[in-house]
Hints:
Largest sheet of chain A: 6 strands, mixed
Largest sheet of chain B: 2 strands, antiparallel
Number of helices of chain A: 10
Largest interface: A-B, 30 and 22 residues
Order of helices and strands of chain B: HHHHHEHHHHHEHHHHH
Bound molecules: adenosine-5'-diphosphate, magnesium ion
CATH topology of chain B: ABC transporter involved in vitamin B12 uptake, BtuC
Distance between the termini of chain B: 15 Å
Helix content of chain A: 40-55%
Structural class of chain B: mainly alpha
Strand content of chain B: under 5%
Strand order of the largest sheet of chain B: 1-2
Shape of chain B: globular
Structural class of chain A: alpha/beta
Number of strands of chain B: 2
Number of helices of chain B: 15
Radius of gyration of chain B: 19 Å
Strand order of the largest sheet of chain A: 6-7-8-3-9-10
Strand content of chain A: 15-25%
CATH class of chain B: Mainly Alpha
Oligomer: heterodimer
Amino acid sequence: MILQVQNVSKRFGGLRALENISFEVREGEIFGVIGPNGAGKTTLFNVINGVYPPQEGQIFFRGQNITGLPPYRIARAGIARTHQIMRPLGELTVRENVTVGACFGRESLSLGAAATVADEVLTFVGLGGKAGVLASKLNAAEKKRLELARALAARPSLLLLDEVLAGLNPNEVADMLAAIRSIRDNGVTIVMIEHLMHAVMQLSDRVFVLDHGAQVSEGTPQVISVHPKVVEAYLGDPKLAQRLLEGLE
Amino acid sequence: MSALRTPFFWGLLVLLGGVGLLPILNGSDSMREDIFLVLMLVILASSINIIMGYTGYVSFGHIVFFGLGGYVAFYLMLNHQVHFVPAAVVGGIVSSLIAFLLGIPVLRLRGAYFALATIGINEVVRSFVTNFDPFGGATGMFFNYEVYNGYGGSKNALWYAYYAILVVALLCAVSSLLIKKSRFGLGLLAIREDQDAAQVLGIDPARSKVLVYTISAFFPGLAGAIFFFKNGIIEPGPAFDLLRSIEALVMVMLGGYGTVAGPIVGAAVYEQLRAFLITNSTFSSFHLFVAGFLLLLIVLFVTAGLVGWLRQRAPRLRRYLE
Ligand SMILES: Nc1ncnc2c1ncn2[C@@H]1O[C@H](COP(=O)(O)OP(=O)(O)O)[C@@H](O)[C@H]1O
Ligand SMILES: [Mg+2]
């Protein structure tokens, strides 16, 4: 198990953003997280990577208890993430942004080695031509790719992707899906929050469903897409589930 | 250390060193005094830039380290007959130490709160020194001329002070470049852009900020020691003069916040302007008004400052102009 989340709860004032959440992520898999807006998905990432400590419960990364560690310690341990609301370092160039990821990530590279990694990763995500541009000058789709590049440059063993497909056109989605598969094939475990159901169902080995901070279900895409509660709470339309399943070949 | 192999590094060294050598070559006292002042302002502005330009924390009251270094060194020279070079080094180290201790709580504050806190620190230290008898209280301390005998008389001492300020200005400028071009410096820039994102990327903001604040206090400490050694008298008012802090901030903004060359250019240009205004009878009591107005113009229209503007305008220049 690369990641174990055990009975985690997080409240904001009276709001129960996460209530007694437990799951495990296996080495090398793609683990999908779905749920309607406000379900607590981003909060789940924030709790895993140390932005907020949970009020209850524990989180283990490769058997080591990381509950309550600051984000930079968790980053160095090998967990990288992207932000749903992109956070480019605006007045730094695209290459510098990605170099930061490589310098301070799992491998703590020197500046020179980090710049080499940055160029490799930028080529991989298709931003090679923008390396010298200020990050603030990128468009939304490019900023998404920058988020991914920065996280990858840290050479993480666990990658948390928060809605990297949102706002991309169909071609860009296809590119991104191929990129995510290839990252996994290089041995990186992935937890991805996604709204695009067909993408989650195609890509994920297992899917976890959240609603109003509560755990609804967990299982393979086949099981999840016919789960009555999922159909009711999330997919809404039973026929949609049928179509999604057919999409799974 | 690859920053030491760039054309910019050599350009910086040759230009700053070259200007610094002028009074030594022609032996002019008045030129020496003028350039002493510019070099001292270069040190103050560059130090502020190391914390403010690289990390985004506006240290309004940075002059406190100038005063502290000055007082500590003066005390050692006057009461313990310490030579001015080791005394200045101790002054710098004490400034750094105090920045380190204060930085731990104060650098948790963000934005305007940090800026206000640094003003508070300067005022607290000034009041403390004003009431601190070993430092001469409100009247301060002064040398009798015998102190300068150890340096071959007061005329020679002025030259020693000049050599010292030149060396410190070069050290400060080179440190500013090395920091900006280092892994540590990249972490600082990331903190400046978005501290929370930086932390998610693996940077420990508290540690980086305290370290850079400590470094940025060292050079003003040395400069204060050298300035008051030359001055022969130290009092709380001139040592902890908030106005000078604000002027140094204007120099940083004028030259270009976050660049290495900016504070140097800013200090030189500002000092030229100030000297002109002070000798010009229409403006003589007017220069602070002009400083304020200048700051307003920069903040409104050329936020990047002179060097920043050039770098934006001519991206090809970036390799040669840090
Ligand atoms: N920092 C915060 N302070 C207060 N409430 C928050 C905070 N972050 C998230 N929330 C609330 O927690 C709930 C879950 O939010 P979020 O995790 O962003 O949902 P999702 O990513 O599933 O759309 C929402 O109601 C949101 O308003
Ligand atoms: Mg979200």
